[in-house]
UniProtKB/TrEMBL annotation:
Keywords: Lyase, Magnesium, Metal-binding. The keyword NAD does not apply. It is an enzyme of class 4 (lyase). Transmembrane segments: none annotated. Its cofactor is Mg(2+). Residues 32-218 form the HpcH/HpaI aldolase/citrate lyase domain. PANTHER family: CITRATE LYASE SUBUNIT BETA, LYASE BETA SUBUNIT, PUTATIVE (AFU_ORTHOLOGUE AFUA_4G13030)-RELATED. Mg(2+) binds at residues 128, 154. The lineage of its organism: Bacteria, Bacillati, Actinomycetota, Actinomycetes, Mycobacteriales. One of its GO terms (biological process) is oxaloacetate metabolic process. InterPro entries: Aldolase/citrate-lyase_domain, Citrate_lyase_beta/mcl1/mcl2, Pyrv/PenolPyrv_kinase-like_dom, Pyrv_kinase-like_dom_sf. Its EC number is 4.1.3.34. This is Citrate lyase subunit beta/citryl-CoA lyase. Substrate binds at residues 74, 128.
Length: 278
């Protein structure tokens, strides 16, 4: 029997919808995250941990990973001494499912991080600044990068932007285009900070409209909302299956150029349904 993980389902992280950031300063919070319902739980050694709790948080993450529980970990950015300490800890234990690098701003930062991790460890690069956005394609091209993620809060602070969709539309589109250009999986949107369910759903919709296929979150309730909104609807599935039946799964019945994109979308819906139902 495989060891339990902090991933609620066997959802491939390349298409994972909800990415729950959980602070590990208290070990009980790590344990509680097992029942969060998120596709991926990320033990967050950066923003979720106070400066004077970093050492304890690392010890808790090490303890969890040492039990054979593969888990994603968000590490501090390269420009801080915590980055090296985080990687020292991760290099001494097995079970690191993946690493989320905070405040990624250059291809070389990804390379330096990957060099200190077990070979093949996937990396999600968090873009949280103007420089990071300008370097998005280079970051996306770095070996080991699975997806980009948008750190909306720190990005807004860096450039002085508002939180509304129009103010951040360019940044979201830039990350989506960079990901597609480098043939990596679609990016993960930043969290929406609200207690309103309607406002949260609207925040999810903004990312979907931009072409993002995942979202960071801070609570189990939000993780479930994200999963619901980013799962193909029954109507989507019916359309996809009818389209595949009409055009053939291999496109044998395609007659017009406009039908090829329809078939690709239908096949993608079928793939997502299969991925989310495992």
């Amino acid at each position: 029997m495989s060891s339990p993980t902090l991933q609620s389902q066997a959802v491939d992280t390349s298409v994972a919808r909800s990415w729950l950031l959980r602070g590990p300063a208290n070990y009980s919070d790590i344990v509680a995250a097992e029942s969060s319902g998120a596709d991926v739980v990320v033990l967050d050694l950066e923003d979720s941990v106070a400066e004077n709790e970093k050492h304890q948080a690392r010890e808790n993450v090490w303890r969890w990973l040492d039990q054979g529980k593969p888990t994603w970990v968000r590490i501090n950015d390269v420009c801080t001494p915590h980055w090296s300490h985080d990687l020292d800890m991760l290099s001494s234990v097995k079970g690191v499912a993946g690493v989320m690098l905070a405040k990624a701003e250059h291809h070389d930062q990804i390379a330096a991080t990957a060099a200190r991790l077990p070979a093949g460890t996937p990396i999600v690069a968090l873009v949280e600044s103007a420089l990071g956005l300008e370097e998005a394609r280079g970051i996306a091209s770095a070996s080991g990068v699975l997806r980009l993620a948008f750190g909306t809060g720190d990005f807004r602070k860096d450039i002085g932007a508002a939180a509304d969709p129009v103010s951040l539309a360019y940044a979201r589109s830039r990350l989506v285009v960079a990901s597609r250009a480098e043939r990596i999986h679609a990016p993960i949107d930043g969290p929406t900070l609200t207690d309103s369910i309607d406002e949260y759903r609207a925040g999810i919709t903004v990312g979907i409209a931009a072409g993002m296929t995942g979202k960071l979150c801070l609570s189990s309730q939000h993780a479930r909302l994200i999963n619901n909104e980013l799962t193909p609807s029954a109507a989507d599935v019916r359309w996809a299956e009818a389209t595949i039946a009409r055009l053939g799964v291999d496109g044998a019945q395609v007659k017009y150029g406009s039908e090829r994109p329809q078939l690709e979308r239908a096949r993608k819906i079928r793939e997502l349904v299969a991925a989310f139902s495992r």
